[in-house]
Amino acid sequence: MADPKGFMTTPRQEWSRRPVEERVRDWDEVYVPGGLLPIISKQADRCMDCGVPFCHQACPLGNLIPEWNDLVSREDWRAASDRLHATNNFPEFTGRLCPAPCEAGCVLAINQPAVTIKNVECAIADRAWEEGLTPPRPPDRLTGRTVAVIGSGPTGLAAAQQLTRVGHTVAVYEKDDRLGGLMRYGIPAFKMEKHHLERRLEQMRAEGTKFRTSTVVGRDVGAAELRSRYDAVVIATGATAWRELDVPGRELAGVHQAMEYLPLANRVCEGDIAVSPLCAAGRHVVIVGGGDTGADCLGTAVREGAASVTQLDIYAQPGTERDEDTEPWPTYPKIYRLSAAHEEAEVLHTAPAADVDARMFAASTLRFTGDGDGQVRELHLVEVDAERRPLPGTERALPADLVLLALGFSGPDRRDGLIDQLGLDLAPRGTLARGVGYVTNVPGVFAAGDAARGQSLIVWAIAEGRAVAAAVDHYLTGSSRLPSPIGPHDRPMAV
Known about the structure:
By secondary structure, this protein is of the alpha/beta class. It has helices at 6-9, 20-23, 37-44, 54-58, 65-73, 77-85, 91-97, 101-104, 117-130, 154-165, 182-185, 195-207, 223-229, 258-270, 292-304, 340-348, 418-422, 450-453, 458-477, and strands spanning 146-150, 169-173, 210-212, 232-235, 241-242, 255-257, 284-288, 308-313, 359-361, 363-370, 376-383, 396-399, 402-405, 409-411, 445-447.
């Protein structure tokens, strides 16, 4: 603890965002370049190095947060990087994309603003890359064992890197033409520029991990054939089966899933296409769903030049303070948060009918109506109570030329044949069934990440990747030195 009074003398200061009018004209990250380093050592000083650091428990990775806070406060970047990478393969991803449940568990947050843990993490990761503190770590020797990892999202990449580093020969199979899963085509560049991903992939290639893109297991290569070629298989395909909205008018042109819309915008940024076929320019956009994917659609539509953008959330508007009765510290509370995309919508007044920023709360979609050509033109909604029951007399319509459904995901997509070809059992929720050690009902086949857990946070995805790697290593060799931060049935802290 470098400054025992830091939490009393230094107020919380977060990484500044670029002005709204500037950042909505490009796809660069929203934060001021270089804006962290001048403030981050004093922010790390606010950590109390408390005797029981609940931030450890709030983060499934078990990040050694007080340790690297202390090291950053002393500007010992090499040691801070070592402690950070001891528990997290990809801190530059989580430092940008994670909603930071660790900060909700910060002891200081009981009665003060939490330590800016996420910003400290990002500063360490970026400084480590700048100073060459994250060189490739190829194994000293090979074990002669082979592993196929299906899926190159954060779970698959974490599992592959861990297994490669202990000497197994690992090949990652990815259905898309580029690696990264949702980090590549689901997450907009303004939240994480893709050079962060490319840099880590190059590190993995240098360590010996092999990558096979544009390969759908179950179609381009048979799942049973793949299993026969490798000593173990890890399924980390994610939960990509999106939830539908079964209301009248769903069949109208212009009503699309969020994950049909976001990848096209990302492909524009990658230079694959000049203009997205679903570009929001000049259109009235309504996003159904109040989560992070909806916010990603919001920021994307604003940058594409939408005439208006409104986001519907079926839940009531949360308060700005934690409800200690229903969501006591150190659980992650549902409070009103202003993401970069919502800040942009608020400043630019993209949704005149919204309750706040671009959001309409306690709003349920009734139906879509269109014109004579079958194009959606209006979304009809109704206000609902806490039990989602319609409130009489509250029905209204919003103009809608483009409707984006951001309702979450139910489990892995079965259309590629992977699940059926291997004969994998499913859990009641539609996710892959697994037991202790991440094992499926098929010997040598393991399931990890959202495909088995259900949609979750990036920190849980990486934690699952690290844990399943330890399980696979034990299966192949009889023991493992790899860390296993969580079990397959662990869940976030809750009341």
